[in-house]
Amino acid sequence: MSQKDSKIPAWIVTYADLMTLLLCFFVLLLSFAEVDANKFRRIAGELSKAFGVQRDIPAEQIPMGTSAVFDQFSPATPDRTLLDQIRQRSMEERPQLESLRNILDARLQQQVRAVAQQVEDLLKDSIEEGVTQVEVDHKRVVIRIQEKGTFVSGSANVTNEFETLLLDMSEVFEGLPGTIAIDGHTDNIPIRTRRFQSNWDLSAMRAALVANVLLLNDDLSPERLVVQGFADTQPRASNATQEGRAQNRRVEITIDLSEATEERGVRSVEKFSPPEASPPLPGSEETLRQAVEPLPISPTEMSAEPPTANEALFDETVEEVSERFNPLFPD
Which residue, among 247, 181, 177, 185, has the nearest Cα to 211 in the 3D structure? Predict the structure, then answer.
């Protein structure tokens, strides 16, 4: 069976060359063209509308739908205004609470310094002799008693003069709030006797003896006293010299007023702060609204300025704190 010879016409080669040149020409024109973005968007939008392309729906036109799952099992979303109200109240109260804390802390520091001054007046003679020192450490008053003139060397027995001074101090302590810590310290020279096996025994025994003398005052509660012995673990000076060892042999009485003052401060802040609302029940928008609803204010209170209210609250707080210091601050 013979097969016909297929032959490409001669004109098809010329036609292909022309089409290739035409394509290159349009590509060259496109490379030199400048596209106007605004005009391009406008034309593209018109073409989209003409061909029925779905347009974007703005956010404010999103259709609202409901879901049976969220309606039954999800709490109601609170109004934006309620969240704004909670945030606004928190921002308004924060600077007032900080101001109250600062004012109260300053007044309490003043009270602590007054206590220290009262103790210094009582120990004036022994301070001048270098036997005792009084320091203020934040909300604590530290009375540092050296061994010289108070204890017999190497013994826990106190002198008669020091015992009388301790009894006078107990009368001051009974009118003060807070705990009273009595700490015994020694130098690094070891001691070993029939009564004291080490410096631990000596330091603890001296602190305990001071506590026993203070408790001769029946008005001083034993629950307020804390007795500790530290031996030579907390030196104040170098044990290499005789003077340094003399400074390390001491008893420290620390009046801690922080618990009493902080308790008063917390009560004052709680008075100033609005009561916390109970958590709303799921799905109850009315419960959430009641939780953030402001307290009713009378016309007289509305006319008063906030600083006046703060001053009134501060005066009330100061009176409460001062009641704990009545023996030191008579009218």
Answer: 181
C-beta atoms surrounding 13 within 10 Å: 10
Name the fold adopted by 105-262.
60s Ribosomal Protein L30; Chain: A; (3.30.1330)
Which residue is it, tokens 């001071």?
210
> 26-30, 115-119, 274-278: which range is least confident on average?
274-278
Beta strands 132-137 and 140-146 are antiparallel
Instruction: Identify which of 177, 186, 173 has the alpha carbon closest to the alpha carbon of residue 262.
Output: 177
Euclidean distance between CA atoms 64 and 252, whole angstroms = 74
Using alpha carbons, select from 126, 125, 143 the residue that is nearest to residue 134. Answer: 143
Distance CA 80, CA 105 (A): 38
Helices 80-122 + 306-323 axis angle, to 10: 40
Nearest to 234 by CA among 249, 254, 255, 246: 249
pLDDT tens per residue, range 129-159:
888 999 988 889 999 998 887 887 777 788 8
Q: Which long-range contacts (C-beta less than 8 Å, at least 24 apart) are formed by 125-128?
A: 126/165
Look-up of token digits 């609803």: 293
Longest dimension (CA), the chain: 148
Give the Cα separation of 47 and 261 in Å (integer): 78
Return the structure tokens found at 241: 């010299």
Do residues 147 and 184 lie in contact, with contact meaning Cβ atoms separated by under 8 Å? no
Question: What average pLDDT does the structure give for the chain?
Answer: 75
Query: What is the value of pTM for the model shown?
Result: 0.52
- Per domain, the residue ranges of the chain are 105-262
Are 227 and 156 in contact, with CB atoms under 8 Å apart? no
Range of lowest pLDDT (37-46, 194-203, 286-295): 286-295
d(C-alpha 307, C-alpha 7), whole Å: 107
Helices H / strands E in the chain, number of each? 12, 5
Q: What is the mean pLDDT of residues 86-114?
A: 76
Helix (H, G, I), strand (E, B) or coil at 199: helix
